[in-house]
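Chain A, query sequence.
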Amino acid sequence: MQTITISRQLGSLGEEVAEKVAQRLGYQVVCRELINQAAIQCGAPELALAWIDDLGILDIQPSPKDRRAFLSAVEEAMEELAERGNVIIVGRAGQIILGKRPDVLHVKVIAPASLRADRIARMRNIPITAAMAQVKASDRTRRDYLRRHYHARWDDPDLYDLILNTDILSIGSAVRIIVDAAKSDEIKACGIDSVKSLGKLSLQRRIEAVLLERGVSNPHLFITVEDVDRVRLYGLAGTSEEKEMLEGLVQKTPGVKTVVNELTVLRGAMGGV
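Chain A, predicted structure.
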């Protein structure tokens, strides 16, 4: 089981690198568009997708709930892809969403802006000034996406295991470096305990998505996934009915078999749902 995320600058040849790595390893390449489609199939609102891709430059904007619902659906889709493994995920903040998984290799492909603009000008047959404008706009969009939605810096080197400069490296060299890293014993090592941890993390994501979809906003509700199918609830509930409702929602989450409900009913202690 192996997953690679690739973050790339426009004109850095990141997509070409991803495709060739996939060919060498026999992996599937999943781009932003496929992840978006998976999120929409999970019920995420398309208006939120347009808002996210345009960074809010719309006459009509979705509600914060719809925006968060879409992001949660993207995260759930990405977690499921990583669970399946043998996949290269390009874009959509994979380096953040899958940042804590031990079986994921995070790569960023870069190049100087002038070289990227030259590549774009030749590829799209446009003036160099127009190409440079596209490069700058793309960099700004990618930077703002991580900042707005994940409060992270796109250029933070700590987010990546490899940063490859295609001004220095050919596509072939970049591909060999990634393939060698993916095949290394350190990256491939993922024992039973690690796999179990990944399953618990995936279940936690699904529970959060279910509660979000039902509009649950209880700052005193805490959830612990104790095993791959066992969940513990603790904290405060406003009423006995709310306590039962929360247990029911969690119990219906796919993958949950046992719910230990240790919520304390304390009327008036919180805002409710």
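Residues 11 and 116 are 4 Å apart (CA to CA). The chain is about 50% helix and 15% strand.
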